[in-house]
Amino acid sequence: MVMQALAGAVGPIMISLAGLIGLQLARDPALATLPVAGYNIGVAVAMLPVAWLLARLGRRVTYLLGALLCSGAGLLAAAAIVGEQFWLFAAAAAVAGFYTACAQNYRFAAADLAAAGQQPRAISKVMLGGLAAAVIGPQLVIYSQAALPGAPYAGSFVALAGLALLAVPVIARLQVPPAAATDSAAPGRPLLAIVRTPVFLVGALCGVCSYGLMAFVMTAAPLAMVGHGHAVNDATLGIQWHVLAMFAPSFFSGRWIERYGKVPITGLGLLLLAAAGLAALSGLQVVHFWGSLVLLGLGWNLSFVGATAIIAGSYRPAERAKVQAANDFLVFATVAVASLSAGYLLAENSWQQLNQIILPVVAAVVLVLVSCRRAVAASAGESLRTVVGED
Q1: Which ranges in the chain belong to alpha helices (H)?
Q2: Are residues 54 and 141 in the same domain?
Q3: Are residues 242 and 105 in the same domain?
Q4: Where does the record place a coiled coil (predicted)?
Q5: Mean pLDDT, rounded, for 99-109
Q6: I need a surface site. Which of 46, 260, 270, 340 has the fewest CB within 10 A?
Q7: Contact (Cβ atoms closer than 8 angstroms) between residue 300 and residue 209
């Protein structure tokens, strides 16, 4: 839980500040969100190297490498801000993504450490770390952004470097079994055959849509708030409430899926994403931004957990690793594109026009989800409690 709290704080810090710093350093305002996109690209690109390192060096060494790289990236980002080097800052943000990619494996380590029958409880404790991260990251920004006179926000990245270093002694004491190379000795189907199945396609589409739209709006929100006269602290607190809304429902969303089904809960999450867009279109006061971000977080949780459950029904045990890796790559590659395009669209259009995009996208995905509901219902997947971490 402590490791997740420390690593999970990187995302809120990046989302809160990277776009604002990009706007401050970039010659072209359309490139303002490139550092945020760089961070998400770093996560996506690091997925496969992290998996390779986990298998060969073990979890503890890989996690330590991630924390140390993030610490170095934080210092490099601070130096880039002081030196007004836009591209160096974007590169530092991408390196920090490696740490987040490592953190994606924490829940699996917790499950491996837990006694038989206690895996869901162990994963739930890791999820609690996500809630703590939602508070730690934004509060760190608020209290450290002016720590270095003459270099706004540079202090927050020095603080980020220190936060990553705090994880080092925790990770050093970690005793975990090696990550399993495979879940079964039985041969699996070719990846191409799996990704062509309706269950994988609809699960991946819902996951890409939920995470992509969430990143699209979340990346632009701090820029839009500051651009409409709101304080940086208000924008940062908006991200804090958003991240809290992202993680808080995880303790009961899986139970809802078990009771009502994957398709209805995934659909409900997608509709909440549309509601977030409508809330953003209703006004430009702080309450409208915050309300939109909270709905965005809630919608992301239900739709992404539902999409994960759908994906879990598309593969056999021997196929788990390659299917999960393929799905995660699609998701984070989409997030990177969404983060970059958010800055361009915000610069060329407006916050309202950006949110108008949500509605037709959600409508199209809901239509596909409903049309494939029988295939999803017939799929046999992993236990939902293991997927989302409930007890």
Answers
A1: 2-8, 10-25, 34-57, 59-82, 86-103, 106-113, 119-144, 154-172, 191-195, 198-227, 232-247, 250-260, 262-281, 286-312, 320-348, 351-356, 358-371, 373-378, 384-388
A2: yes
A3: no
A4: none
A5: 79
A6: 260
A7: no
Which range, 48-57, 102-111, 221-230, 241-250, has the best average confidence (pLDDT)?
221-230
Kindly state the average pLDDT of the residues 121-133.
66
142/130 Cα distance (integer angstroms):
19
Query: Do residues 39 and 96 touch, judged by C-beta distance below 8 A?
Result: yes
Work out the angle between the directed axes of helices 232-247 and 286-312 (0-180°, nearest 10): 30
Q: Are 161 and 188 in the same domain?
A: no
* 32 contacts 127 by C-beta, under 8 angstroms: no
Residue linked to tokens 């607190």: 237
Number of neighbours of residue 361 by Cβ within 10 angstroms:
17
CA angle 219, 223, 224 (to 5 degrees): 105
Kindly tell me the sign of the dihedral angle through the C-alpha atoms of 211, 214, 220, 226: negative
Total-model pTM:
0.76
For residue 173, what are the domain limits? 1-181
Please determine, for residue 18, whether its predicted confidence score (pLDDT) is greater than 80.
yes
Question: Sorting pLDDT into bands at 50, 70 and 90, what band is 21?
Answer: very high
Can you spell out the DSSP letters for 206-262?
Answer: HHHHHHHHHHHHHHHHHHHHHHTT--HHHHHHHHHHHHHHHHTTHHHHHHHHHHH-H
User: CA 347: distance to chain centroid?
Assistant: 24
Smallest CA-to-CA distance from 4 within 157, 141, 131 is with: 131
Task: State how far the Cα of 38 lies from the Cα of 59, in Å rounded to an integer.
Answer: 25
Pair 155, 205 in one domain: no
Asked which of 143, 158, 181 is the last residue of a domain, the reply is 181
DSSP 184: -
Q: Are residues 235 and 278 in the same domain?
A: yes
Identify whether the C-beta of residue 207 lies closer than 8 Å to the C-beta of residue 307. Answer: yes
Do 378 and 315 have their domain in common? yes
Same domain, 200 and 105: no
Phi/psi-derived region of residue 163, left when phi > 0, alpha when psi is between -120 and 50, beta in every other case:
alpha
| Alpha-helical regions (H) of 313-357 | 320-348, 351-356
pLDDT(119) > 80: no
